[in-house]
Amino acid sequence: MLQSINELQQKVDEMLLKVGLPMLSINLCSAPIGDGTPCISFENHEYNYIISERGYEFSRKVTKSEDELLYWIMSELAYKIAFQYELEHRIEDRDGRRIVFPKFIEIMQKINPKWKLKAEAEIKKTLAVTPYDDKPYYVL
What we know:
The protein has about 140 residues and is an alpha+beta fold. The protein is built from four helices and three strands; from the N terminus they run H-E-E-E-H-H-H. A three-stranded antiparallel beta sheet has the order 1-2-3, with helices on one face. The longest helix is centred in the middle third of the chain and has 23 residues.
């Protein structure tokens, strides 16, 4: 179990370099900044992945698994990259997630091949709740 934010940052940087992304593409924090940037704490032999903004906590995920924590950290960056990719390759009147989700899975698999199935399961759960919607939207 990684015990310091510096050890975790080093592990994340190694993963980033492995897939050709610059080091410090993710800058880990051990205390809330207040702008929605995730922070990580180590309490009671567990990792806490906390997202808060202006003193309000929006999300807290807790795990004992280093792999799970790394998945959460890397998936945030993978989604940002996938959404940027969709923006650059947008297809009118198609749900943008049709481009985002496969790209997200591709990135997560590059980072860690074991994460492909986990990413696919995550997408499947999302689509079960909010299926693709290719209806055109018009602003009046």
